[in-house]
UniProtKB/TrEMBL annotation:
Transmembrane segments: none annotated. CDD domains: NUDIX_Hydrolase. InterPro entries: NUDIX_hydrolase-like_dom_sf, NUDIX_hydrolase_dom. This is Nudix hydrolase domain-containing protein.
Length: 171
């Protein structure tokens, strides 16, 4: 039996100059994303900081809330039909990136150009699958990105991140 979803997720922006720390997920949902995950009963700030530490080994010393948004992105947990997202920016952080062996396939510092390329890859994928790239279609898009072998092996931007990055004016 799958774990119950609390329908809350947090993500964290870590910047190094103009570049943003991105991870490639090892399992659902496949794609390039900010360090992020379920809050599992924690406050949004505490849960997001915990996810950062779990996925990257970095410690957030100071967080600023940047976006709160509800998205209809599903997950594999029971009841995971949507998520209330909180995206923070770590204005101060420390440590060396040590990616989680169980959750993170790779990590990189993404330039603004690289983020545009990852976004375009998702846009092209959605067009190829004949899925209009709007929030209401996130369930279909997430399903396709979790099942398509070519996406899984060479993903672009994770679907929920696309809409969160638009809200953050990153893309």
């Amino acid at each position: 039996m799958a774990k119950a979803c609390d329908n809350t997720s947090g993500g964290i922006l870590i910047r190094k100059g103009e570049d943003i720390l991105m991870i490639e997920r090892k399992k659902n949902n496949f794609g390039m994303a900010l360090p992020a995950g379920h809050l599992d009963g924690d406050t949004s700030g505490a849960g997001t900081a915990r996810e950062l530490d779990e996925e990257t080994g970095l410690i957030a010393d100071e967080l600023t809330l940047r976006v709160e948004k509800i998205l209809p992105n599903p997950c594999k947990r029971d009841g995971g039909t949507h998520h209330a997202w909180s995206i923070f920016e770590a204005t101060h952080w420390h440590g060396d990136v040590r990616p989680s062996e169980s959750e993170v396939k790779s990590y990189f510092w993404a330039s603004p150009q690289k983020i545009k390329e990852l976004s375009k890859k998702l846009e092209d994928f959605a067009r190829e699958k004949k899925i209009r790239l709007i929030e209401d279609n996130l369930p279909s898009l997430v399903k396709e990105t979790n099942e398509d072998p070519s996406w899984i092996s060479h993903p672009g931007l994770e679907p929920p991140m696309y809409f969160l990055f638009k809200e953050l004016k990153i893309i």
